[in-house]
Each structure stands twice: as structure tokens, then as C-alpha cells.
Amino acid sequence: MSNDALNLPVKARDRAPACVVSDAEVSLLNFYRASALHGGLILGQMARRSCEPELIARLTRHSAEEMLHSLWWTETIARLSGCTKAVTDTYHSRCVEIVGTPISLLEVIALTSVFEHRICECLQLHLNEPDVHPIVVATLRRVLADERWHLRWIGEWLMEERKINAQKVSSAVGRYAIADREICEALSAAYGLRKSA
Ligand SMILES: [Fe+2]
Question: Residue 9: what pLDDT?
């Protein structure tokens, strides 16, 4: 990617100092970056298959914001002089391994709901830690500000859907929630993903 695509000060693009955070922290930031991108792609695919204008608007905005979060993490890693790397291991890829590929709108929303709750908790716990680099703190705050709307519209959609078929919604969300607990344990071990005790 051209440096012009990155929102970085010119001086930061030209020099290549040692990374200012640990390799483990960079791996976690790469994981945030890749998972936001994967989540955005799934939502974008669902927007392509939808007909109802308000739903398309919500899915498209949500997809765009997840893509933007991925860009912000890319810029954050670059500002820290860390290495971006191809990451195919994402929250969503692990979820697909356990539950299967989400096909229906309900499955995509259920997966997104569980992911959003988990990532919000992880980012907030990360933010609450002492000695987090100020560049990382700024991006965590920026991403978390958007997450409020993500959680709200997904929650509203699920609430409306429950009025039609509560059993179906509970079953879908429940499947992803069970997978989420397994994924969280594994990601905590692999990337140091923050989780509550
Ligand atoms: Fe989100």
C-alpha cells in the first residue's frame, strides 16, 4: 500500500525506528485490525443481499465503520513502527469453525451481536490498563465511541425479531454465545485478548 493511503505525518513515514510497543501488543493490534475487517466484510455481504432500505443503510454504515476501524488500527500500528501482517485468524474465522458459516440475516446479526459485546469488553479492559501507549489509547477511545451505535442497533433488531420468533432468535444467539466463550479463552491465550476474571 502506498504511504499516501496512510494518515501519517510525513516524518513518521520516512523514518523506521524500532517499534515502541512489544511484539505481543502488535500481534493483538493486528488481531483487532483483521477482525474488524472480517466483521465489516460479513456485514457488507449481507447488505448486498438485503432489499429493505433501512436495513441496507444500517448494515452498510456498520460495515463501513468496521472497515474504518481496521484502517485506524493499521495507522496505529504504523505510527508505533510495528509491522502489519496478513492475519487470517480472526474472531469470525474461529466462530465459523465452531458454528459454521453464517448464511441468514439472523445468523449474521447473532454473530455480530456476540462479537460486538465481546470486543467492547476487551477494548474497554485494554483501555483501563495502566501504561497503555497514548497512540493505542487514542484509537481504543475512537473505536469504542462507534461501538455504542453498533450495540444499539443490533440490540434493537434482535428485540424486534424476538417478537416474531423468540425461540429462533434465542437459539441463534445462544449458539454463538457458547462459541464465544471458547473463542475468548483461546484468543486470550494466543493474543493476550483481555477478558474479565
Ligand atoms: Fe463494532
Answer: 67
